Amino acid sequence: MGITASLREKALLAIKEKIQFRELKPGTIFTEATICDELNMSRTPVREALIQLVADGVLRKVLHKGYEVVEFDTKSKMNFYTIYANLDALAAISALPNMEESDLLRMEEIADKIDIALKYRNYEEYYHLQDQFHMIYIDKCDNPQLVKLLGDFSHGHINRSYLSEDIDKLFLVLKESNNEHREIIDLFRRKARPELENYLRYTHWITKYMDLI
């Protein structure tokens, strides 16, 4: 990957993250120059990233004004979550024979770090740590195509975690989610294949709070 392509990918991920964390909200128009300033990047990689996001349907070009984040309806989000839940569960049961105690200890360490992030209400830290948690077993599923698919979803434009301006409720819900992480570790440790698959599909990734998606 050349320098320009690498910068474009960096810009692409940074803009998607701004969308995920609602720094760029649907309906708000922003310019290429604004993004360049915020990312401290030159115009070429930022412009290429914005063009890519328009092509992907994440952004809409507003004539003579700039760009706007596309609002996804509830059904589109639910379709996304259903696909992700099934892919993640498949990765988990595929990884099960390859998981070692050291992997589970790393997952426990991340769960402990998530507790700290939640204590200090650091949403971005929570988001990145929960990604790291799931990537431990995804990386061990021995299926490069599946890993790539999940990676594409992870860096996609739809948030894979709850998000709300009701901070008290949000962090209570995220605490509940981290308790589920510990249950996932236990299922891995017990090598409970059917239970692990069902837990990821129908408990951990199920949307319990529709007002927070």
Can you give a write-up of this model?
The structure is a single chain. The chain is mainly alpha-helical and 213 residues long. Helices cover 67% and strands 5% of the residues. The protein has a 3-stranded antiparallel beta sheet with strand order 1-3-2. Helix 4 (74-95) packs antiparallel against helix 9 (193-204) and helix 6 packs parallel to helix 8. The longest helix is centred in the last third of the chain and has 23 residues, at 167-189. It is globular. The two termini are 35 Å apart. The mean pLDDT is 91.
Comma- or semicolon-separated keywords:
single chain; 213 residues; mainly alpha; 9 helices
Poorly predicted ranges: none
- Quaternary state of this entry equals single chain
Largest sheet: 3 strands, antiparallel
Beta strand %: under 5%
For the terminal residues, how far apart are their CA atoms? 35 Å
Strand order of the largest sheet: 1-3-2
Helix tally? Answer: 9
Radius of gyration: 18 Å
Percentage of helical residues? Answer: 55-70%
Specify the structural class: mainly alpha
Round the mean pLDDT to the nearest integer and report it: 91
Give me the count of strands: 3
Give the H and E element order.
Answer: HEHHEEHHHHHH
Shape: globular
